[in-house]
Amino acid sequence: MRRLRVLFHHRRYLTLALLATLLVPSTSGLLFGQQEPPPPPSAPRAVSFPKPIETTLKNGLRVIAIERGGLPLVSAQVLIKNGGEVDPPQSAGLAQMTASLLTKGTATRTAPEIAEAIEALGGSLDSGARWDAAVVGVGVMSSKFIPAMEILADVVRRPAFKDEEIERLRQQTLDGLSVELREPSVLARLVASRVVFGGSPYGHPLTGTPETLARIKRDDIARMHRTYYRPDNAVLMIGGDIKPEAAFKVAERLFGDWAKPATPLPASSAETGKAAAAADKPRVIVIDKPDAGQAAVVLARAGLRRTDPDFFRGLVANSVLGGGYSARLNQEIRIKRGLSYGASSTLEVRREVGPFVASTQTKNESAAEVAGLLVNELGGLASGQIPDLELTPRKAVLIGNFARAVETNEGLVGQVASLALYGLGLEEINNYIKNVQTITAGDVQRFAGTRLSSKDANIIVVGNAQLFLNDLRKQFPNVEVIPEAELNLNSASLRRASTGATQK
């Protein structure tokens, strides 16, 4: 038996050695930087999604149906066309709290009863708010569609906003914030929003702050719901294994008597996405957090509206810069220099101008170096070459992500709902891939040079300032330093009234 084991291991060793010998020629290029280019991509394939069919009820509710066979599933979504941007200045987080409470009890169902009813149907129900909208969605088998829609209509139209549910949600949110606000990366992004948008509606934290959450009362929540949750400010999306005629019939039965208020909607604020006046003179802000084990480094500036003609140029430009593992920021900061576990960027489009943010975390001692790299890479996007070998995979990432997003009914409904929210034609869902594919390297360079100039970008660093401040000042002389204890996220100044920023 022992001899057999020796022979087995000897043969296994020879087999592995032979495989290693055969593999050496094909991997030597990788080891010495001579990797062969990948084969060219195949010809683009046309993709066509089901055509959305829509109607408008007498009360002003827009109803959009998308029939999609294949699986006996249906997703539905009620989209309210206002979100965090309508939070009162002293009540940041109100829209998020209002939306989250919708599923926590109605006039006829308690929160546990809602959860049990949805579970019994084998479905899911969720709600929440983002900057420009509040969303309540349900997903269920098509055979259970009508009872699921009855629950959806109930939570949207008749939430109870019980005191005990309000206090439970408030405490849960505060507990989450107590953890998140200790994270340098979270602080850096919240500070970035204030730096870019100042006191305008996009400047405050979407989920609120401990101070603003404490001020929110039940009357505020009920007023938010009464003001914005109305049929002429909503879109009902239904997609999946259902005929449009059947979808419209259910919509009429469950939402047709939803009364449209006599009072008009509040006028939208022209200041929503207005960049702070300080954006004319970019700022470099350090939040001194001595207990930070790492520094968070963020570059932030104003970006685009969703309806901007440059939207797809911006989408591809961001993908090249920091939209994935093989994008430039991650290549330069993580792969080449080993200064971070990852670096990325986002171009967040909204109804009004949203933010462009590039971010990473690094050890405190290298924070200044990384800040310079973010600026350099953004500037290089406008001035350097973008070969097809780089551009083609980055566009493929966008197309692949889009394909994954719409492969489910929920994803398809969400994509069409976004088009409806921003007033875009619903047929645009079939143009996404083509619009990405047509972007050229020149388009990216021009966009980066005219719409993402690094000269207009702000730098925010949250970390142990004594370990990087001197080096940071060598690159950016006008550094503002705010001790963490003096930081005020409720103010466009970022400072508590009794204190000011200090210069070290």
Name the features.
504 residues; alpha+beta; Cytochrome Bc1 Complex, Chain A, domain 1; 2 domains; six-stranded mixed beta sheet; 17 helices; 43% helix; globular; disordered N terminus
Textual characterization of the structure:
The protein is α+β, with helices and mostly antiparallel strands. It has two domains: 203 residues, Metalloenzyme, LuxS/M16 peptidase-like (Cytochrome Bc1 Complex, Chain A, domain 1), CATH 3.30.830.10; 210 residues, Metalloenzyme, LuxS/M16 peptidase-like (Cytochrome Bc1 Complex, Chain A, domain 1). It has a six-stranded mixed β-sheet, with helices on both faces. Strand 4 and strand 5 form a beta hairpin. The chain is globular and about 65 Å long. The relative contact order is 0.14. The N terminus and C terminus are likely disordered.
Helical run tally: 17
Structural class: alpha+beta
Question: What can be said about the biggest beta sheet?
Answer: 6 strands, mixed
Give the C-level CATH assignment of the largest domain: Alpha Beta
- What's the total count of β strands? 12
Can you give the mean pLDDT? 90
Supply the CATH architecture of the largest domain: 2-Layer Sandwich
CATH superfamily of the largest domain: Metalloenzyme, LuxS/M16 peptidase-like
